[in-house]
Amino acid sequence: MDLYLTNTLTRKKEAFTPIESGKVGLYSCGPTVYYYAHIGNLRAFTFADILRRTLMMNGYEVMHVMNITDVGHLVGDGDDGEDKLEKGAKRDGKTAWEIAQFYTDAFMRDMAKLNILTPNKLPRATEHIEEQIQMIEDLEKNGYAYRTSDGVYFDTSKLETYGRLSGQKIDEKEEGARIGIHSEKKNLSDFALWKLSVPGAHSEHAEGSKRQMEWESPWGVGFPGWHIECSAMSTAYLGHTFDIHTGGIDHIPVHHENELAQTEGAFGTLQAKYWLHNEFVQIDGGKMSKSLGNAYALHELEERGFDPLAFRYFVLGAHYRSSINFTFDALEAAQNALKSIRSMVREFDPHGGAVDEGLYARFQQAMNDDLNTPVALAVLHETVKNDALPLKTKAATVRRIDQVLGLGLEDYIGRTVEAPLEVLALVEAREKARKEKHWEESDRLRDEIKTLGFVVRDGEDGPELQEV
Ligand code: AMP
Ligand code: ZN
Predict the structure, then answer these.
(1) Any idea which ligand is nearest the CA of 44?
(2) Is residue 295 lining ligand 1, measured as CB closer than 6 Å?
(3) Of 67, 151, 317, 418, which is the most buried if we count CB atoms within 10 A?
(4) Atom 7 in ligand 1: which residue has the minimum CA distance?
């Protein structure tokens, strides 16, 4: 069965063929660790994980690399503004290095809670400064770079293919228009490769204290530009051309366009063959932003009583190329759907079943059709609810499907509810009250049991407990 993926570069849904048979090099733009990842970022990482698991389902050995941006991103989309890490350091009263470590740890915890497989490599930008400098030197040597008073820039007019990913012509670039023209830039779309941290440069921090993160370079003490880390680190771990590059759609016109340009300028190669982009998360039908207070982090969802995997289920409910509208009601619906699956799989027989090939083939077909997770979830529901299937077959099929969906169902398959003794005692008391026809008392006990997180149902063989 072929795997079809929509490639932003060719604007087509294409059958995937790897560069090296049986193997896939996958690079995903990772977090900027100056604050907690918000649910939009988490959608991007969940999408990359679903892609990786689908590749594995197809028998590929995947080398997944995700960068940790722990330096240099400026607050603006362009090359202006305050450095995000230095800003985070000021906000939290820590050093930029401490901030990077703190939010990298938080990110790793979020990934684990969302059942996202840990990438094989998680290179940090600060640990690959030498490779970035080397690449800028290559660009200079090949005639794609020029110096200004505040750094080194990429000359986009020198690269004929510039704009191929987004389809924009050089002078149409919005970003340049929005931030105003840097007086020494030759073209609006030119971007910084290296920025000098000498006082007197135009960026904000230059007026104040010395930067915490800066390095020696052939051009002077400074720090790398926004995009060079991904070209340098993807080359270091995956080679001059690798299979698939992922990120959110915001990366298409600037970050990914520039990554492609740098790799082509330095090595004359196409950085990646397939470029996949997830659409955005919207909140209550509008934009998500820190200033609106709605750029929720995972721990904020947990504080409101949500299971992180309910968020994963919510994300899978939409195709990655559709924008998804986050509301707490929608998250609650996702959580309820997940809970109902969990309670049903508890009844399954976990031992010795064989996968139902018909259902699994339909599941694979959905995933191989450009990662159609809404259809794949429908197949999961159908499997769980199909009373014609033996309980063993259901267990084996759900287990196989969930290797790709990653909803953590293995923890529930065939596991009866382990209720605390306190709850069991209340259930017993309620049974007694019912037998004695003390209905009011029995209802009161049922409510008390509910406050402890369990629902009692009166089945044929006596009371049954389910988690709320
Ligand atoms: P950043 O830390 O800003 O580099 O973002 C990390 C990843 O999250 C990138 O792939 C972005 O494209 C993606 N991203 C940022 N905002 C959103 C959003 N609202 N919805 C979905 N993905 C997003
Ligand atoms: Zn990147």
Answers:
(1) 1
(2) no
(3) 151
(4) 41
- Give the integer Cα–Cα distance in Å for 73 and 71: 6
In the reported structure, the alpha carbon of residue 344 is separated from the centroid of ligand 2 by a whole-number distance in angstroms of 41
Q: What is the pLDDT along the chain (468 residues), one digit of tens a residue?
A: 999 999 999 999 999 999 999 999 999 999 999 999 999 999 999 999 999 999 999 999 999 999 999 986 554 445 556 677 888 888 888 888 899 999 999 999 999 999 999 999 999 999 999 999 999 999 999 999 999 999 999 999 999 999 999 998 766 555 544 455 567 899 999 999 999 986 444 444 444 456 788 999 999 999 999 899 999 999 999 999 999 999 999 999 999 999 999 999 999 999 999 999 999 999 999 999 888 889 999 999 999 999 999 999 999 999 999 999 999 999 999 999 999 999 999 999 999 999 999 999 999 999 999 999 999 999 999 999 999 999 999 999 999 999 999 999 999 999 887 788 899 999 999 999 999 999 999 999 999 999 998 988 887 778 888 777
Residue 204 one-letter amino acid: E
Q: How many structural domains comprise the chain? A: 3
Nearest 10 degrees: Cα torsion 40, 45, 49, 54: 50
The residue among 257, 278, 299 that closes a domain is: 278
Considering every ligand atom, which ligand is closest to the CA of 230?
A: 2
Q: Which two tokens stand for residue 318?
A: 């939409």
Q: Which domain holds residue 308?
A: 282-411
Q: Which pTM value belongs to this model?
A: 0.88
Same domain assignment for residues 301 and 439: no
Q: Which bound ligand lies closest to the C-alpha atom of 123? A: 2
Q: Which of 462, 345, 341, 464 is nearest to 415 (CA)?
A: 345
Q: How far is the CA of 432 from the centre of ligand 1 (A)?
A: 56
**Mutation to probe ligand 1, out of 73, 74, 250, 326 (largest number of atoms < 8 A from CB):** 250
Residues 302, 252 share a domain:
no
Same domain, 372 and 429: no
Residue 57 C-alpha to ligand 1 middle, in angstroms?
26
For tokens 């771990």, the residue is 237
DSSP per position, 204-225: GGGGSSPPSS-B--TT-SEEE-
For residue 388, the cross-strand partners are none
Q: Among the three residues 253, 278, 303, which one is the final residue of a domain in this structure?
A: 278
174 and 295 co-located in one domain: no
Q: Are residues 397 and 440 in the same domain?
A: no
Q: How far is the CA of 174 from the centre of ligand 2 (A)?
A: 19
